[in-house]
Amino acid sequence: MKILLCFGTRPEAIKMAPVYHALKEQKSFEVLVCVTAQHREMLDQVLHFFEMVPDYDLNLMQANQTLNQLSASILSAIDAVLLDAKPNLVLVHGDTTTAAMVALAAFHLGIQVGHVEAGLRSFNKQAPFPEEINRQFTSKIADIHFTPTTLATQNLLNEGIASKDVFQTGNTVIDALLWTSAKIKEEQYSHPEIEVLKKTIPLHKKMVLVTGHRRENYGEGFENVCSALLTIAKRDDVSIVYPVHLNPNVQDVVNQKLAHQENIYLIAPVSYPAFVWLMQHSFLILTDSGGIQEEAPTLGKPVLVTRSVSERPEGIAAGFSTLVGTDKNKIIETIHSILDDFTGFEKITNPYGDGNAAQQIVDSLVKKDR
Ligand code: UDP
Asked: Is this complex scored with an ipTM above 0.90?
Protein backbone atom coordinates (compact mmCIF):
# COMPACT_ATOMS: atom_id res chain seq x y z
CA MET A 1 0.00 0.00 0.00
CA LYS A 2 1.26 3.48 -0.86
CA ILE A 3 0.48 6.10 1.80
CA LEU A 4 0.87 9.85 1.38
CA LEU A 5 1.05 11.90 4.57
CA CYS A 6 0.02 15.47 3.95
CA PHE A 7 0.30 18.36 6.40
CA GLY A 8 1.18 22.02 6.58
CA THR A 9 1.56 23.46 10.07
CA ARG A 10 3.87 22.99 13.05
CA PRO A 11 1.44 21.06 15.27
CA GLU A 12 0.46 18.73 12.43
CA ALA A 13 4.11 17.98 11.72
CA ILE A 14 4.80 17.23 15.41
CA LYS A 15 1.79 14.92 15.58
CA MET A 16 2.44 13.21 12.23
CA ALA A 17 6.16 12.60 12.91
CA PRO A 18 5.55 9.50 15.08
CA VAL A 19 3.12 8.16 12.44
CA TYR A 20 5.70 8.75 9.71
CA HIS A 21 8.41 6.87 11.58
CA ALA A 22 6.13 4.00 12.61
CA LEU A 23 4.91 3.62 9.01
CA LYS A 24 8.48 3.63 7.71
CA GLU A 25 9.29 0.76 10.08
CA GLN A 26 6.45 -1.23 8.55
CA LYS A 27 8.29 -2.30 5.44
CA SER A 28 5.17 -3.35 3.52
CA PHE A 29 4.08 0.28 3.16
CA GLU A 30 5.52 2.81 0.78
CA VAL A 31 5.47 6.16 2.60
CA LEU A 32 5.55 9.59 0.99
CA VAL A 33 5.25 13.05 2.55
CA CYS A 34 3.76 16.20 1.08
CA VAL A 35 3.89 19.50 2.96
CA THR A 36 1.73 22.43 1.97
CA ALA A 37 3.87 24.64 4.25
CA GLN A 38 0.81 26.57 5.39
CA HIS A 39 3.35 27.68 8.08
CA ARG A 40 6.89 27.85 6.73
CA GLU A 41 9.57 28.49 9.38
CA MET A 42 7.77 26.78 12.25
CA LEU A 43 7.09 23.72 10.08
CA ASP A 44 10.71 23.53 8.96
CA GLN A 45 11.94 23.44 12.58
CA VAL A 46 9.85 20.33 13.14
CA LEU A 47 10.79 18.61 9.87
CA HIS A 48 14.42 19.08 10.77
CA PHE A 49 14.13 17.81 14.35
CA PHE A 50 12.11 14.74 13.45
CA GLU A 51 14.20 14.02 10.35
CA MET A 52 11.37 14.11 7.85
CA VAL A 53 12.27 15.04 4.29
CA PRO A 54 9.20 15.89 2.21
CA ASP A 55 8.83 14.25 -1.18
CA TYR A 56 6.63 17.16 -2.22
CA ASP A 57 6.88 20.69 -0.83
CA LEU A 58 4.13 23.00 -2.10
CA ASN A 59 5.52 26.03 -0.24
CA LEU A 60 2.13 27.73 -0.20
CA MET A 61 2.56 30.20 2.64
CA GLN A 62 2.09 33.81 1.61
CA ALA A 63 1.92 36.91 3.74
CA ASN A 64 -1.63 38.03 4.56
CA GLN A 65 -3.34 35.40 2.42
CA THR A 66 -7.00 34.85 3.21
CA LEU A 67 -8.40 31.45 4.11
CA ASN A 68 -10.14 31.31 0.74
CA GLN A 69 -6.91 32.07 -1.11
CA LEU A 70 -5.09 29.44 0.95
CA SER A 71 -7.86 26.87 0.36
CA ALA A 72 -7.82 27.52 -3.37
CA SER A 73 -4.05 27.22 -3.64
CA ILE A 74 -3.99 23.97 -1.65
CA LEU A 75 -6.77 22.43 -3.77
CA SER A 76 -5.10 23.44 -6.97
CA ALA A 77 -1.54 22.41 -6.01
CA ILE A 78 -2.38 19.09 -4.36
CA ASP A 79 -4.13 17.83 -7.49
CA ALA A 80 -0.84 17.37 -9.36
CA VAL A 81 0.77 15.70 -6.31
CA LEU A 82 -2.03 13.16 -5.99
CA LEU A 83 -1.95 12.42 -9.71
CA ASP A 84 1.81 11.98 -9.62
CA ALA A 85 2.10 9.97 -6.38
CA LYS A 86 -1.05 7.87 -6.95
CA PRO A 87 -1.36 6.88 -3.28
CA ASN A 88 -3.86 4.28 -2.09
CA LEU A 89 -4.42 6.32 1.04
CA VAL A 90 -3.86 9.94 2.06
CA LEU A 91 -3.38 10.64 5.76
CA VAL A 92 -4.35 14.11 6.99
CA HIS A 93 -4.34 15.50 10.50
CA GLY A 94 -6.66 17.46 12.75
CA ASP A 95 -8.47 20.66 11.93
CA THR A 96 -6.39 22.70 9.51
CA THR A 97 -7.27 24.12 6.12
CA THR A 98 -4.64 21.75 4.74
CA ALA A 99 -6.46 18.73 6.22
CA ALA A 100 -9.87 19.78 4.89
CA MET A 101 -8.70 20.75 1.40
CA VAL A 102 -6.42 17.75 0.89
CA ALA A 103 -9.23 15.44 1.99
CA LEU A 104 -11.54 17.08 -0.54
CA ALA A 105 -8.99 16.79 -3.35
CA ALA A 106 -8.38 13.12 -2.54
CA PHE A 107 -12.13 12.48 -2.51
CA HIS A 108 -12.47 14.07 -5.97
CA LEU A 109 -9.86 11.61 -7.27
CA GLY A 110 -11.38 8.58 -5.55
CA ILE A 111 -8.43 8.19 -3.15
CA GLN A 112 -9.10 6.91 0.37
CA VAL A 113 -8.58 9.35 3.24
CA GLY A 114 -7.42 8.56 6.79
CA HIS A 115 -7.95 11.23 9.45
CA VAL A 116 -5.52 11.34 12.38
CA GLU A 117 -6.82 13.09 15.53
CA ALA A 118 -10.41 12.63 14.39
CA GLY A 119 -13.62 13.24 16.32
CA LEU A 120 -12.72 16.35 18.33
CA ARG A 121 -15.66 18.73 18.55
CA SER A 122 -16.25 22.14 20.08
CA PHE A 123 -19.71 22.31 18.42
CA ASN A 124 -18.94 25.97 17.89
CA LYS A 125 -19.11 26.64 14.16
CA GLN A 126 -18.75 30.35 14.62
CA ALA A 127 -17.64 32.05 11.40
CA PRO A 128 -14.99 32.87 10.37
CA PHE A 129 -12.93 30.62 12.67
CA PRO A 130 -12.00 27.60 10.61
CA GLU A 131 -11.08 24.80 13.00
CA GLU A 132 -14.47 23.26 13.88
CA ILE A 133 -15.74 23.32 10.33
CA ASN A 134 -12.45 21.87 9.08
CA ARG A 135 -12.78 19.00 11.57
CA GLN A 136 -16.38 18.23 10.73
CA PHE A 137 -15.78 18.55 6.98
CA THR A 138 -12.78 16.19 7.12
CA SER A 139 -14.81 13.64 9.10
CA LYS A 140 -17.50 13.64 6.41
CA ILE A 141 -14.94 12.70 3.78
CA ALA A 142 -12.57 10.39 5.65
CA ASP A 143 -12.78 6.61 5.20
CA ILE A 144 -10.74 5.75 8.31
CA HIS A 145 -10.78 7.78 11.53
CA PHE A 146 -8.09 7.61 14.24
CA THR A 147 -9.46 9.07 17.45
CA PRO A 148 -7.53 10.06 20.58
CA THR A 149 -10.21 9.51 23.26
CA THR A 150 -13.50 7.77 24.01
CA LEU A 151 -15.33 11.07 23.72
CA ALA A 152 -13.89 11.69 20.25
CA THR A 153 -14.93 8.18 19.19
CA GLN A 154 -18.41 8.77 20.54
CA ASN A 155 -18.70 12.06 18.66
CA LEU A 156 -18.09 10.25 15.38
CA LEU A 157 -20.49 7.41 16.19
CA ASN A 158 -23.13 10.03 17.05
CA GLU A 159 -22.64 11.48 13.59
CA GLY A 160 -23.38 8.13 11.97
CA ILE A 161 -19.84 7.01 11.19
CA ALA A 162 -19.59 3.21 11.28
CA SER A 163 -17.67 1.83 14.25
CA LYS A 164 -15.64 -0.46 11.96
CA ASP A 165 -14.03 2.65 10.45
CA VAL A 166 -13.09 4.24 13.80
CA PHE A 167 -9.88 3.26 15.61
CA GLN A 168 -9.23 4.72 19.05
CA THR A 169 -5.48 5.05 19.33
CA GLY A 170 -4.70 7.93 21.68
CA ASN A 171 -3.11 11.13 20.47
CA THR A 172 0.22 10.87 18.65
CA VAL A 173 1.40 14.09 20.33
CA ILE A 174 2.13 12.03 23.44
CA ASP A 175 4.37 9.74 21.36
CA ALA A 176 6.21 12.82 20.09
CA LEU A 177 6.46 14.32 23.57
CA LEU A 178 7.81 11.18 25.25
CA TRP A 179 10.29 10.58 22.44
CA THR A 180 11.51 14.17 22.66
CA SER A 181 11.68 14.17 26.48
CA ALA A 182 13.85 11.05 26.35
CA LYS A 183 16.05 12.58 23.66
CA ILE A 184 16.77 15.80 25.55
CA LYS A 185 17.56 13.80 28.67
CA GLU A 186 20.37 11.93 26.90
CA GLU A 187 23.70 12.99 28.34
CA GLN A 188 25.34 13.61 25.00
CA TYR A 189 22.36 15.62 23.69
CA SER A 190 22.97 19.32 23.51
CA HIS A 191 20.68 21.77 21.79
CA PRO A 192 21.87 25.33 21.13
CA GLU A 193 18.44 26.86 21.82
CA ILE A 194 18.17 25.07 25.17
CA GLU A 195 21.66 26.29 26.09
CA VAL A 196 20.61 29.89 25.34
CA LEU A 197 17.39 29.49 27.36
CA LYS A 198 19.34 28.15 30.33
CA LYS A 199 21.45 31.31 30.29
CA THR A 200 18.55 33.73 29.73
CA ILE A 201 15.75 32.59 32.01
CA PRO A 202 16.00 32.74 35.81
CA LEU A 203 15.04 29.17 36.65
CA HIS A 204 14.79 29.82 40.40
CA LYS A 205 11.57 31.76 39.71
CA LYS A 206 8.17 30.21 38.93
CA MET A 207 7.89 30.20 35.16
CA VAL A 208 4.57 31.09 33.53
CA LEU A 209 4.91 29.80 29.96
CA VAL A 210 2.64 31.56 27.46
CA THR A 211 1.63 30.86 23.86
CA GLY A 212 -1.25 32.03 21.67
CA HIS A 213 -2.18 31.91 18.03
CA ARG A 214 -5.94 31.57 17.56
CA ARG A 215 -7.81 33.83 15.18
CA GLU A 216 -10.68 34.10 17.67
CA ASN A 217 -8.28 35.94 20.03
CA TYR A 218 -6.82 38.43 17.56
CA GLY A 219 -7.24 42.04 18.72
CA GLU A 220 -9.02 42.46 22.04
CA GLY A 221 -8.35 38.90 23.23
CA PHE A 222 -4.58 39.22 22.89
CA GLU A 223 -4.67 42.73 24.38
CA ASN A 224 -6.44 41.43 27.49
CA VAL A 225 -4.04 38.52 27.89
CA CYS A 226 -1.10 40.94 27.65
CA SER A 227 -2.65 43.27 30.25
CA ALA A 228 -3.08 40.34 32.63
CA LEU A 229 0.56 39.33 32.09
CA LEU A 230 1.73 42.85 32.95
CA THR A 231 0.02 42.51 36.32
CA ILE A 232 1.44 39.02 36.97
CA ALA A 233 4.93 40.22 36.02
CA LYS A 234 4.91 42.54 39.04
CA ARG A 235 5.51 39.48 41.24
CA ASP A 236 9.18 39.03 42.05
CA ASP A 237 8.90 35.25 42.25
CA VAL A 238 7.68 34.91 38.65
CA SER A 239 9.20 34.92 35.18
CA ILE A 240 6.94 35.00 32.15
CA VAL A 241 8.34 33.27 29.08
CA TYR A 242 6.45 33.89 25.86
CA PRO A 243 7.53 32.39 22.52
CA VAL A 244 5.53 34.69 20.26
CA HIS A 245 3.79 33.12 17.25
CA LEU A 246 5.02 34.55 13.94
CA ASN A 247 1.60 35.69 12.74
CA PRO A 248 1.69 39.53 12.56
CA ASN A 249 -1.73 39.71 14.26
CA VAL A 250 -0.05 38.20 17.32
CA GLN A 251 3.40 39.79 16.99
CA ASP A 252 2.13 43.37 16.73
CA VAL A 253 0.02 43.36 19.89
CA VAL A 254 2.39 41.32 22.03
CA ASN A 255 5.50 43.29 21.08
CA GLN A 256 3.76 46.60 21.54
CA LYS A 257 2.41 45.72 25.00
CA LEU A 258 5.05 43.46 26.52
CA ALA A 259 8.46 44.29 25.02
CA HIS A 260 11.15 45.34 27.52
CA GLN A 261 9.02 44.69 30.62
CA GLU A 262 10.62 43.36 33.75
CA ASN A 263 10.17 39.59 34.36
CA ILE A 264 8.81 39.10 30.82
CA TYR A 265 10.91 37.22 28.26
CA LEU A 266 9.55 37.51 24.73
CA ILE A 267 11.30 35.07 22.44
CA ALA A 268 10.78 33.74 18.91
CA PRO A 269 8.90 30.44 18.58
CA VAL A 270 11.36 27.75 19.63
CA SER A 271 12.01 24.34 18.15
CA TYR A 272 10.07 21.42 19.59
CA PRO A 273 12.85 20.10 21.88
CA ALA A 274 13.38 23.59 23.29
CA PHE A 275 9.65 23.98 23.88
CA VAL A 276 9.45 20.62 25.63
CA TRP A 277 12.34 21.78 27.82
CA LEU A 278 10.44 24.99 28.60
CA MET A 279 7.29 23.06 29.48
CA GLN A 280 9.31 20.79 31.77
CA HIS A 281 10.72 23.82 33.60
CA SER A 282 7.48 25.79 33.75
CA PHE A 283 5.21 26.14 36.77
CA LEU A 284 2.03 26.61 34.75
CA ILE A 285 1.10 27.25 31.12
CA LEU A 286 -1.25 29.91 29.74
CA THR A 287 -2.24 29.08 26.16
CA ASP A 288 -4.92 28.80 23.51
CA SER A 289 -3.08 25.86 21.94
CA GLY A 290 -4.75 22.50 21.50
CA GLY A 291 -1.57 20.44 21.47
CA ILE A 292 -0.25 21.97 24.68
CA GLN A 293 -3.49 21.09 26.50
CA GLU A 294 -2.78 17.49 25.48
CA GLU A 295 0.91 17.48 26.38
CA ALA A 296 0.77 19.26 29.75
CA PRO A 297 -0.83 16.47 31.86
CA THR A 298 2.04 14.12 30.99
CA LEU A 299 4.44 16.70 32.42
CA GLY A 300 2.24 17.53 35.42
CA LYS A 301 1.77 21.18 34.40
CA PRO A 302 -1.59 22.93 34.85
CA VAL A 303 -2.94 24.69 31.77
CA LEU A 304 -5.05 27.83 31.71
CA VAL A 305 -6.83 27.95 28.38
CA THR A 306 -7.44 31.42 26.96
CA ARG A 307 -10.64 30.35 25.21
CA SER A 308 -14.30 30.10 26.12
CA VAL A 309 -14.70 26.60 24.65
CA SER A 310 -12.38 23.68 24.12
CA GLU A 311 -12.74 20.65 21.88
CA ARG A 312 -10.51 18.96 24.45
CA PRO A 313 -12.83 18.72 27.49
CA GLU A 314 -11.09 15.66 28.93
CA GLY A 315 -8.32 17.74 30.53
CA ILE A 316 -10.91 20.11 31.99
CA ALA A 317 -12.93 17.21 33.43
CA ALA A 318 -9.72 15.84 34.98
CA GLY A 319 -9.23 19.22 36.67
CA PHE A 320 -6.01 19.82 34.80
CA SER A 321 -7.04 22.50 32.32
CA THR A 322 -9.14 25.54 33.18
CA LEU A 323 -10.98 27.69 30.67
CA VAL A 324 -10.11 31.28 31.61
CA GLY A 325 -11.14 32.91 28.33
CA THR A 326 -9.55 36.28 27.67
CA ASP A 327 -11.01 37.99 30.71
CA LYS A 328 -8.14 39.93 32.26
CA ASN A 329 -9.27 39.57 35.88
CA LYS A 330 -10.08 35.87 35.60
CA ILE A 331 -6.61 35.22 34.12
CA ILE A 332 -4.91 37.19 36.89
CA GLU A 333 -6.90 35.53 39.69
CA THR A 334 -6.42 32.00 38.36
CA ILE A 335 -2.68 32.43 37.80
CA HIS A 336 -2.19 33.90 41.29
CA SER A 337 -4.15 31.08 42.89
CA ILE A 338 -2.11 28.33 41.20
CA LEU A 339 1.20 30.12 41.84
CA ASP A 340 0.28 30.24 45.51
CA ASP A 341 -1.19 26.75 45.84
CA PHE A 342 -0.23 23.95 43.48
CA THR A 343 -2.22 21.27 45.30
CA GLY A 344 -4.01 18.86 42.98
CA PHE A 345 -1.78 19.30 39.96
CA GLU A 346 0.61 16.44 40.56
CA LYS A 347 1.03 14.13 37.57
CA ILE A 348 -2.17 12.44 36.45
CA THR A 349 -2.92 9.76 33.90
CA ASN A 350 -3.05 11.68 30.67
CA PRO A 351 -6.53 11.27 29.12
CA TYR A 352 -5.12 12.00 25.66
CA GLY A 353 -2.77 9.05 25.26
CA ASP A 354 0.04 6.88 26.52
CA GLY A 355 2.67 7.29 23.81
CA ASN A 356 1.65 4.31 21.72
CA ALA A 357 -0.75 5.94 19.28
CA ALA A 358 1.36 5.84 16.13
CA GLN A 359 1.95 2.10 16.42
CA GLN A 360 -1.77 1.55 16.92
CA ILE A 361 -2.49 3.57 13.78
CA VAL A 362 -0.06 1.42 11.80
CA ASP A 363 -1.56 -1.78 13.25
CA SER A 364 -5.05 -0.64 12.22
CA LEU A 365 -3.84 0.10 8.70
CA VAL A 366 -2.18 -3.32 8.45
CA LYS A 367 -5.46 -4.89 9.56
CA LYS A 368 -7.43 -2.88 6.99
CA ASP A 369 -4.92 -3.73 4.24
CA ARG A 370 -5.39 -7.51 4.66
N1 UDP B 1 5.38 24.35 20.24
C2 UDP B 1 6.69 24.45 19.75
N3 UDP B 1 7.35 25.66 19.85
C4 UDP B 1 6.77 26.77 20.37
C5 UDP B 1 5.42 26.68 20.83
C6 UDP B 1 4.75 25.47 20.74
O7 UDP B 1 7.25 23.46 19.28
O8 UDP B 1 7.43 27.82 20.43
C9 UDP B 1 4.67 23.07 20.09
C10 UDP B 1 3.86 22.59 21.30
O11 UDP B 1 4.62 21.77 22.16
C12 UDP B 1 2.72 21.80 20.65
C13 UDP B 1 2.51 22.52 19.33
O14 UDP B 1 3.70 23.27 19.08
O15 UDP B 1 3.09 20.46 20.38
C16 UDP B 1 1.31 23.42 19.43
O17 UDP B 1 1.21 24.22 18.31
P18 UDP B 1 0.14 25.39 18.19
O19 UDP B 1 -0.14 25.93 19.53
O20 UDP B 1 0.69 26.32 17.15
O21 UDP B 1 -1.12 24.70 17.54
P22 UDP B 1 -2.37 23.88 18.12
O23 UDP B 1 -1.83 22.85 19.05
O24 UDP B 1 -3.29 24.83 18.78
O25 UDP B 1 -2.99 23.25 16.92
From this structure: yes
